[in-house]
């Protein structure tokens, strides 16, 4: 035993053993460490290793700035905290989802918001928050396999889509529906730019410093989350210049498809509407690129290389900000006064307005925020109203609730005077939500007594400026103003009221945009887009035409008897006869302009017609001067504008046929069925076409003379043959027509117009248009009809056809041989009777031709049904006073008045004063004036027209004398009224100073029945600002700051 112990001790004391044991221990330690590194701590060290991995990061370029003509900033870029996700930081989807939820929770905790463009409620049960268009657009931004799959997604409920996205984004089942909904919002933002892994994805903007600080302090807990500062667009005058300057936001899918070839990405910020859109190529900068090293959480640790971004060019407008502000504020003030006047009922010419009408209009104009109402705290009026409203709503039938919202129910109950909700209830709610500002005394009084009307409260709110016309759509609550430098064509001010808020559109688009879709038409710049009849402001053009063509002189006296009886019935009347039962008596040109005598201009236009000759000599002469003054074209301004429409026979046919062609291209099945039924009903009464007159050829004469016998015998054959196929043939014709119009509608329209206007034989414009339309229809569907009709006709017994023709020819032959035995008609009839059996194919083709003629004729009648397609002397004389189909926008009227004022040139209008080229270091380049047309009008003609316009503002009977007679600067002007349905729009156009014009001003107040004076007041305010009236010193400007 002792020997064994000693032997063992000897082994353990041996140096070789000790060395071997040490190696074994070391191996075990190394193996353990290797296991820890490779298995236990693999992810940690793998991520640390990536600190040396390079990243390519796109650097956004600052957008160019926008200034007014004096260098005052209008659109600038402000620093904005953003949170982005680095797609290149690798992690499991489950970890990404957890991080995103943590980010959202942090944002919400600190009162920040995150990007959420999903049109689904945030809480279950999930419902869509937008209509079909918004939902359809959303489906393009989420994962789908193909178009068929996308269509299937469109059929899903909101809850089913959320469930689908939970699966696609691998969202853990432990997350609640509400948490998953938050993650889905951010995952969708990431998915939108998944095509480009080098791009970081913004998930929150305008983030507080508190949130940024937390993320930076706890960066290890938020791998892939990047905090940064970017430039966000900010507008210094967001409403005054809203629909002029536009706004910026993420590029839409449609824009991206148009612009991707120019280097745009799907998440780029671009200009929408206004100057921001039209000057996008100038304002857009050139992106830069950085190569950086990042650590394990995606933070940059080292910049390897940087290609600097280049800012966009700065754009200078011709707009004078001070003048623009005055124009906008005066428009708002005068509209408020007009509404107050109607609430007071002090203007007998204007329709009165009730407080209830104003309140209901506010409800229909997004002034009540239902989300605020829903979340109102107990004890508030909002809470009380919401509880009562939802009590009523929840008791409604389920079918009714599908088509009626709680807000609509509230409006309905208020309109019906049920007493459940009162005007005072609504004003108290508006006050709590900040739409108006009631004093505490008024609030207390309303709470004490909820009944009664509220006119005087609303009047008080208007007069204090706490309630504005842009919060409703009562009339008049919209207007336009344009101010132009007559010597250059520069637009100094342009107001389309109401306007949207550009800052809200840029930073809060989804919420704000949805509040603009109501009768206020906030997105529509009326100064550029709303075309109305010019009314009497057109009379200066008629005066110029009359003087230049020599049908009147300045001293020509025309006796106004009240009713003009030379141009047919209904006889047009002078406005004074309609109002007072008598005419103006003898008037010359100056007096005719001063008192706006319609009769004088009727006679003038009639004389133009006598000189020019039939059928369109008068209107052609008048149109010559309309075109000379630029009213037939857009103005050239660097903004989107509606095209003008001058009242001519050409445009009358063009507009109405074009509208019908457009409708046919978009025909749905129900409308097509209706058209087919209407044509079948007509053709069942008679297919065989009756000709109104004989042609010159023998064939045409025989066809005309034999038509009644042929109709009597062939009509039953037609009806029997097409009894089952008539609807199919008509349907095929319409579908073939749709195909033809999809690709060539403009070509067919031009053919119709050319043929109509060159037809000198036919007097009736409708008949000319129908004839040319029939030719066009034959070109569109003729070959298709030949195939369809011949199939049916080939089934008819040929001897039925031949018997009908033989009977008709025999009857005609016997009649004609007695009257003209040697005529060519008799000879041809004899020949046809002898060869009848040999000409079977000829008679089949003749039947085909007659059926096709009948069908095309009926389709043409259907297309023209209800259209107003006649042009008479009455139309011409009415056009001369600015009625007819004349329609011009305020900007187009502004160019006309500016040209009239300078007397020499029609300028292409411009709103871009110049560009400061930062992208090319070219410096500031001014935009030069551009002449559209030179006026060739005698000085004496202009002088006579000017005198009449001066009398409008200074004469004893001038319609604007009360506003301008004592004004410090002499003004020449003209008022006008455009009637539309039961209302009217009021124009005032003018220029100043009278002797040496500098600016032209056009104002339009829409739906201003009996309240046209307010437009004149707006003009006076603008002129006072421009001429610095009542001010101590002119303003200091920075004009031409970039010009050497």
Question: What does the model show?
Answer:
- With 1044 residues, the protein is α+β, with helices and mostly antiparallel strands.
- The radius of gyration is 39 Å and the shape is globular.
- It is 50% helix and 13% strand.
- Among the domains are: 2-40; 83-235, no CATH class; 354-471, no CATH class; 650-864, no CATH class.
- Strands 2, 3, 4, 5, 10, 16 and 17 form a seven-stranded mixed β-sheet that branches. The chain has a five-stranded antiparallel β-sheet with strand order 12-11-21-20-19, with helices on both faces.
- It contains 44 helices and 21 strands.
- Helix 32 (669-683) packs across helix 35, helix 35 runs antiparallel to helix 36 and helix 37 packs across helix 39 (840-864).
- What is the number of helices? 44
Structural class: alpha+beta
**In percent, how much strand structure appears in the residues?**
5-15%
| Mean pLDDT reading | 91
| Rg for CA atoms | 39 Å
Low-confidence stretches: 1036-1044
Tally the beta strands.
Answer: 21
Shape: globular
Distance between the termini: 114 Å
Indicate the percent of residues in helices: 40-55%
Largest sheet: 7 strands, mixed
SSE layout and pairing:
Layout: H1 2-13, H2 15-40, H3 42-49, E1 54-59, E2 66-67, E3 73-86, H4 93-109, H5 132-139, H6 147-154, H7 158-168, H8 177-192, E4 200-205, H9 209-217, E5 225-235, H10 242-245, E6 247-250, H11 253-259, E7 269-272, H12 274-278, H13 280-283, E8 288-294, E9 300-307, E10 314-317, H14 321-344, H15 355-363, H16 370-374, H17 381-394, H18 398-401, H19 406-415, H20 423-433, H21 440-448, H22 455-464, E11 479-485, E12 491-497, H23 502-507, H24 509-513, H25 526-529, H26 539-548, E13 558-560, H27 575-580, E14 585-587, H28 589-595, H29 598-612, H30 617-628, H31 649-665, H32 669-683, H33 698-705, H34 707-721, H35 726-758, H36 765-793, H37 798-819, H38 824-834, H39 840-864, H40 873-879, H41 890-902, E15 905-908, E16 912-917, E17 923-926, E18 930-934, H42 939-954, H43 961-964, E19 972-980, E20 983-992, E21 999-1005, H44 1013-1026
Parallel strand pairs: 2-10
Antiparallel strand pairs: 1-8, 2-3, 3-4, 3-5, 6-7, 8-9, 10-16, 11-12, 11-21, 13-14, 15-18, 16-17, 19-20, 20-21
Helix pairs in contact: 4-8, 14-22, 14-44, 26-29, 26-30, 26-42, 28-42, 29-30, 29-40, 31-35, 32-35, 32-39, 33-38, 34-37, 35-36, 36-39, 37-38, 37-39
């Amino acid at each position: 035993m002792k020997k064994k112990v000693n032997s063992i001790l000897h082994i353990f004391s041996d140096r070789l053993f000790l060395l071997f044991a040490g190696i074994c221990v070391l191996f075990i330690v190394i193996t353990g460490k290797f296991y820890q590194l490779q298995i236990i701590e693999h992810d940690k060290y793998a991520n640390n290793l990536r600190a040396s991995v390079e990243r390519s990061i796109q650097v956004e370029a600052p957008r160019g700035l926008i200034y007014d003509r004096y260098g005052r900033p209008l659109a600038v870029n402000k620093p904005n905290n953003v949170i982005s996700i680095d797609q290149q930081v690798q992690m499991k989807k489950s970890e990404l989802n957890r991080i995103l939820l943590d980010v959202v929770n942090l944002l919400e905790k600190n009162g920040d918001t995150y990007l959420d463009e999903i049109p689904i409620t945030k809480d279950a049960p999930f419902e869509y928050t937008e209509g079909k268009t918004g939902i359809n657009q959303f489906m393009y931004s989420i994962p789908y396999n193909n178009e068929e799959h996308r269509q299937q997604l469109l059929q899903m409920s909101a809850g089913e889509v959320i469930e689908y996205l939970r699966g696609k984004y691998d969202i853990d089942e432990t997350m609640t529906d509400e948490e998953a909904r938050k993650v889905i919002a951010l995952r969708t933002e990431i998915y939108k730019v998944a095509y480009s892994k080098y791009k970081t994805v913004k998930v929150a903007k305008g983030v507080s410093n508190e949130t940024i600080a937390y993320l930076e302090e706890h960066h290890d807990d938020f791998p892939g989350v990047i905090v940064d500062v970017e430039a966000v667009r900010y507008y210094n005058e967001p409403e005054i210049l809203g629909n002029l300057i536009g706004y910026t936001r993420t590029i839409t899918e449609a824009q991206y498809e148009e612009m991707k070839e120019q280097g745009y990405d799907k998440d780029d910020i671009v200009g929408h509407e206004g100057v921001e859109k039209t000057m996008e190529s100038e304002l857009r900068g050139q992106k830069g690129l950085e190569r950086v090293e990042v650590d394990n959480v995606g933070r940059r640790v080292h910049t390897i290389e940087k290609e600097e971004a280049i800012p966009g060019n700065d754009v200078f407008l011709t707009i004078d900000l001070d003048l623009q502000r005055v124009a906008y504020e005066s428009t708002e003030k005068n509209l408020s006064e007009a509404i107050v006047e109607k609430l007071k009922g002090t203007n007998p010419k204007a329709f009165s307005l009730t407080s209830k009408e104003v309140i209901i209009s506010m409800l229909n104009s997004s002034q009540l925020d239902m989300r605020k109402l829903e979340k109102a705290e107990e004890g508030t009026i909002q809470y009380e109203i919401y509880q009562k409203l939802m009590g009523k709503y929840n008791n409604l039938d389920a079918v009714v609730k599908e088509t009626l919202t709680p807000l609509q129910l509230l409006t309905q109950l208020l309109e019906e005077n049920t007493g459940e909700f009162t005007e005072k209830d609504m004003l108290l709610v508006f006050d709590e939500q900040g739409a108006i500002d009631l004093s505490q005394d008024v609030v207390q009084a309303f709470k004490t007594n909820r009944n009664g009307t509220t006119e005087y409260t609303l009047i008080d709110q208007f007069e204090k400026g706490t309630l504005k016309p842009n919060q409703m759509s009562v009339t008049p609550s919209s207007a336009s103003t344009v101010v132009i430098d007559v010597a250059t064509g520069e637009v100094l001010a342009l107001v389309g009221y109401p306007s949207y808020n550009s800052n809200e559109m840029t930073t809060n688009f989804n919420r704000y945009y949805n509040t603009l879709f109501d009768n206020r038409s906030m997105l529509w710049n009326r100064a550029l887009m709303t075309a109305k009849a010019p009314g009497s402001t057109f009379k200066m053009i008629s005066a110029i035409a009359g003087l230049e063509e020599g049908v009147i002189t300045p001293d020509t006296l025309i006796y106004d008897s009240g009713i003009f009886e030379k141009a047919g019935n209904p006889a047009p009347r002078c406005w004074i006869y309609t109002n007072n039962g008598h005419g103006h008596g003898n008037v010359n040109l100056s007096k005719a302009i001063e008192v706006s005598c319609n009769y004088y201009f009727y006679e003038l236009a009639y004389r133009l017609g006598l000189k020019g000759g039939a059928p369109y000599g008068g209107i052609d002469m008048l149109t010559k001067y309309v075109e000379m003054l630029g009213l037939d074209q857009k103005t050239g301004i660097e903004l989107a504008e509606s095209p003008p429409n001058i009242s001519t026979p050409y445009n009358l046919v063009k507009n109405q046929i074009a509208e019908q062609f457009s409708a046919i291209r978009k025909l749905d099945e129900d409308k097509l069925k209706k058209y087919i039924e209407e044509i079948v009903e007509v053709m069942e009464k008679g297919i065989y076409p009756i000709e109104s007159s004989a042609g010159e050829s023998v064939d045409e004469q025989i066809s005309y003379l034999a038509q009644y016998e042929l109709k009597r015998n062939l009509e039953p054959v037609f009806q029997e043959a097409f009894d089952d196929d008539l609807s199919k043939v008509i349907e095929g014709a319409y579908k073939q027509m749709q195909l033809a119009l999809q690709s060539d509608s403009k070509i067919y329209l031009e053919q119709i117009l050319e043929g109509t206007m060159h037809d000198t034989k036919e007097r009736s414009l409708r008949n000319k248009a129908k004839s040319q339309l029939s030719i066009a229809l034959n070109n569109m569907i003729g070959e298709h009809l030949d195939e369809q009709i011949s199939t049916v006709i080939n089934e008819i017994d040929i001897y039925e056809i031949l018997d009908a023709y033989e009977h008709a020819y025999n009857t005609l032959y016997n009649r004609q041989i007695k009257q003209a035995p040697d005529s060519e008609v008799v000879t041809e009839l004899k020949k046809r009777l002898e060869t009848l059996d040999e000409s079977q194919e000829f008679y089949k083709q003749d039947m085909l031709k007659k059926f096709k003629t009948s069908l095309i004729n009926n389709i043409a009648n259907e297309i023209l049904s209800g259209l107003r397609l006649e042009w008479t002397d009455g139309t011409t004389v009415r056009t001369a006073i600015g009625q007819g189909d004349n329609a011009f926008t305020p900007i187009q009227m502004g160019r006309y008045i500016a040209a009239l004022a300078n007397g020499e040139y029609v300028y292409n209008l411009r709103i871009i004063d110049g560009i400061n080229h930062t992208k090319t270091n070219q410096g500031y380049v001014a935009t030069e004036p551009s002449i559209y047309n030179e006026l060739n009008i005698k000085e004496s003609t202009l002088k006579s027209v000017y005198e009449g316009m001066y009398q409008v503002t200074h004469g004893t009977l001038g319609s604007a004398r009360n506003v301008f007679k004592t004004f410090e600067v002499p003004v020449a002007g003209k008022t006008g009224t455009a009637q539309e349905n039961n209302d009217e729009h009021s124009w005032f156009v003018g220029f100043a100073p009278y002797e040496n014009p500098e600016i032209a001003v056009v104002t339009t107040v829409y739906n201003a029945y009996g309240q046209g004076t307010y437009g004149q007041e707006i003009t006076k305010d603008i002129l006072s600002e421009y001429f610095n009236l009542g001010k101590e010193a002119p303003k200091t400007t920075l004009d031409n700051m970039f010009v050497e």
